[in-house]
Design brief:
About 30% of the residues lie in helices and about 15% in strands. The protein has helices spanning about 75-85, 120-125, 130-150, 200-205, 215-230, 240-250, 280-285, 290-300, 310-315, 335-345, and strands at about 5-10, 15-20, 30, 35-40, 45-55, 60-65, 95-100, 110-115, 115-120, 155, 165, 170-175, 180. The model is unreliable at about 10-15, about 25 and about 340-345 (pLDDT under 50). The structure holds adenosine-5'-diphosphate (ADP) and magnesium ion. The site of adenosine-5'-diphosphate (ADP) has 21 residues, from strand 4, strand 6 and strand 8. Magnesium ion binds near residues 43, 162, 163 and 176.
Amino acid sequence: MEEDKVLHFTTFYGQSVEIPFEQLPGQSRSIHEFDKLDRVGEGTYGIVYRAKDKVKNEIVAIKKIRMEREKDGAPISGIREIRILMSVRHENVVQLLDVVVGRSLESIFLVMEYCEQDLASLLDNMQSSFSEAQIKCIMIQLFRGLQHLHKSFIVHRDLKVSNLLLTDKGCLKIADFGLARRCSVPAQPMTPQVVTLWYRAPELLLQSKIQTTAIDMWAAGCILGELFLHKPLFPGRTEIHQLELIIDLLGTPNDQIWDGFSDLPILKNFSLKRQPYNNIKHVFTWLSAAGQRVLNFLFMYDPTRRATAEEALQSSYFKENPLPCEPEMMPSFPQHRIRRGKDIK
Ligand code: ADP
Ligand code: MG
């Protein structure tokens, strides 16, 4: 049987399952075992509810996933998200607890651990920025989660603040694997249109066919910059504008700093804005030399020279004062989430 038509998994509760996709309904738990409480999020691909598992008496998050049938009739992207989430277990990756089906194949729900905040709504609801100690605490957890994913050859491909969740204990969880892929070594071409524009790496903007785990590291750099500035670092309106914002901060790339740069196909009929300076130290004036180094390392134009998650974790920035705070010291606003959910209804 073709791989994409079978679902293999072990549920959190230890049950090992391998189901031909057509047989999914009826073999898993029913959505009626859950009470939907509030709507907590609605992104591109699904609606997320806070819900109560009536059987286990636990609060969980339920995401209804898109199960549009593709080419050969199998809902590939939905299955891919389920597969990838089922294959990883790490403190900094959201835990999938179960897969639950509605009456038809069109409604499949992921049951996940519930996290009180996402970083986007937390940033929206905070008057002031995170402290540097808090920012380090967030980034270390992000890099640990990424280190685990990348070691397992998973590229997330859509890292941004709304896809990072925080529990009430200050634990960060990477979520939303709707665009994630397994990558191979050597890297194979993938569909280019990934990663929300503001977090998109220059090699994607310049249409390089090869995508590696380095695209997640660029996005992590954008997240670090956003935490520092308390606003998006590169809020481009179009792909060209996005490249211009990047060049304004980092200077125009060239063959010395990016091996193979001038061979990128798009540069045959398009030339980039000229700006010779790296302005990191002018924008992040208050940041220590080690902090500026880690930003520059995450923003290497050449994806092969960009920091890996492991290298980022080893940065002296995380070892100097102010030291990362303990996760318990992260701010939380337990109320705003629920209120926001009610507003949407
Ligand atoms: P989409 O593909 O639609 O963006 P996400 O998985 O990112 O789906 O979920 C959308 C939003 O729902 C998130 O930004 C977050 O606010 C909320 N959310 C997702 N998963 C959880 C969870 N496990 N616990 C709490 N909230 C969640
Ligand atoms: Mg999302």
